[in-house]
Amino acid sequence: MPRFLIERDIPGASGLTETQLAEIAEKSIAAMESLGVPYRWITSYVAGDKVYCVHEADDEDAIREHARRGGFPATVVSVVANEFGPHTARLRV
Q: For the domain bounded by 3-82, which CATH number is listed?
């Protein structure tokens, strides 16, 4: 299943409380379950006035429908082409 990076513009996002984040998570889960298609929320990050989410779905339409049902924006939706990090580096001798 393709992985997507979703950028959500949410003014004041970095000031959201744990309770508010939990409420958003509950809405997200309910929206996922209502879709009736394969869908997986991996994680989300809050930075400034944005929330960045990593989800897996069959297509961008499912991502956007999840956002619509959850009542939160999906400002930019991008397919993740690849992933890398320290674990992918080769030691050079």
A: 3.30.70.3090
